[in-house]
Amino acid sequence: MCAARLLVDVHTHVYLPRYATMLRSRAAVPRIIPWTGGEERLLILDHEPSGGRPVGSQYWDREEKLKFMDRHGIDVSVVSTANPWLDFLSPTQAQEMATELNADLEEYCSTGPAIPDSTTKRLYGFGLLPLVPTVSVDALLENVKQIAAAPHLKGLIMGTRGLGKGLDDEALDPVWAAIEAAGLVIFLHPHYGVENSAFGEKENGHVLPLALGFPFETTIATTRLILSGVFDRFPDLRLLLAHSGGALPALSSRLASCIDHDPLVAARLKHDARYYVGKLYLDAVSYGPEEMGFTSEVLSRAARYKDITPSKMIANRSEGSKRMLFGTDHPFFPPLNSVEKWKSVVENLEAIEDVQGWSDADKEGVRGANAVSLFSL
Amino acid sequence: MCAARLLVDVHTHVYLPRYATMLRSRAAVPRIIPWTGGEERLLILDHEPSGGRPVGSQYWDREEKLKFMDRHGIDVSVVSTANPWLDFLSPTQAQEMATELNADLEEYCSTGPAIPDSTTKRLYGFGLLPLVPTVSVDALLENVKQIAAAPHLKGLIMGTRGLGKGLDDEALDPVWAAIEAAGLVIFLHPHYGVENSAFGEKENGHVLPLALGFPFETTIATTRLILSGVFDRFPDLRLLLAHSGGALPALSSRLASCIDHDPLVAARLKHDARYYVGKLYLDAVSYGPEEMGFTSEVLSRAARYKDITPSKMIANRSEGSKRMLFGTDHPFFPPLNSVEKWKSVVENLEAIEDVQGWSDADKEGVRGANAVSLFSL
Q: What is the DSSP letter of B302?
């Protein structure tokens, strides 16, 4: 099989059995509770509507992941623990759980199948760091080392809280340095959204926190990283943003303008904000060809803003597409009705196909070749 | 002068003298306070950095507005009271102030200059409603009537709180009906952003609340309008969104997907969320040609989602550009250094010029002809 033809899913989640057992043992959110008919429900946000989400073997059983992959023609998945990771544990618990789950995930991948006639496995993973308040930086560095040494772990997933003060906390600098040096990819993923009061009192199910809160959280976290100079200090850090970077691409010129007009911030950064956006990788989980085409323009125009005086270079969708990677968000977003292929997956694949200005090679890149290259699969 | 050549600014603010006097009399935010050297400072958000923003005659003096217009080649401005409008007043105060300020604004426009050799004035306005908790709907309807009867008021500006429960409050239905019947344009503008704790503890000046909080607020408010069925009940409502609709265009396919997967909401709306986005008007205040080109695609693709089964129509930037309108956000975003033309204005004009796929006529439309048509100038 030709690497350029692989379909690779970089946004696909798992609750490993050890994690699910821990969630079942808990009395507070996040937790898994028994439901009628022997089923279980997952509560991951406060005030979950509909009594929580149905949760089952698709979350923890490797065979179910592989069946989902087969059904959708996905050759390789880079799986990651779903939110909220270890955020709610004590430092000691988080450290122990991170170490055990990273070992579990390496085994999940290494003992899984390979692509026929290839040494490439079908499953790779993003590990976890025990990112909770008061954990020691040494403990974090230990887990970075563990992940870097695990052949099938290609990076790590993290939320936006860091040690409790967010990702713009200088205390994390040694962690960024170690991740950068190890060449690991950080998959930045939301969980908290924004304060629920913003969404009003009407019953809108999960729509507002998921459709808006999640991307807002990713946008804020990444903007705070930019403003704190993390990308100036760690120019080779490789950050993959969930949900195509949320609203950041669309607000990046406004961000640049606001920085430019604020005496407190204007002189602090080496580059225009739009330059840093071009250092990011974005999953192609945005459900529309216009969105994908646009984000590829934003990624490519970063080159325009390398120097103080922006050039007049026209954005090149083809160039920008090289930093975009297919994802499914499985096992979230199951279709309401039983169907062969999940609508959310089909929509994202069709969107990739329909982007104006992407060549066939660009589309192959987004579907898999970019991931093969980014993760050295 | 040919109407197609007019430069029309639809996003330009004023604190009329009566409003400034009221702000000076206040002991709490929002307020205007004396500053060193006979200057004044404006405090409109809690915890303003830098002791607040310099405020002066550019906020209340019509001659200053006209000078700014002349300096930037702006023929017509549709001025609106800047946030936070009347949100902080009692119902009685808000009602009285709305009525007086609407009369003041009509006079500000009607006694101002006309375009040479034309009956078109250089100044038009968006009026105010006393949108505060416990105000009577009759009072709101009185002011809608007042605005509709004022020849130079072409619509009204509003924030996102409505009567305290947001704009998805059914209590506002008679107000939408009256505004729709009068053919007035609603200019929806943010003020509150999102909960500041999301922005962390680092000193980033105004950057995060302005660059992200503002567009997030507009996005949430408009999404709540969509979810509540306002555009199904009032299909001819004309809503102009500040800052190009914030993050809504970029998140509209994600929104559609989240609605589609949520049993509580999926069956409630007549159309795909992206259809309603095409009913909106967006100012062209997004500081980048890629952003503007993209939002014009999102506006035009709405037609694809009119029916339950989306068509394969390719987005048409030219078509979408007809719902986009130049704006400056004056007197906000003054450049840090004294210059002839404001950088923010030049950037937005250059961005319009640089959009790929807009014809010269499309660009003339965004610069002015669309506003001439929308407001019947």
A: G
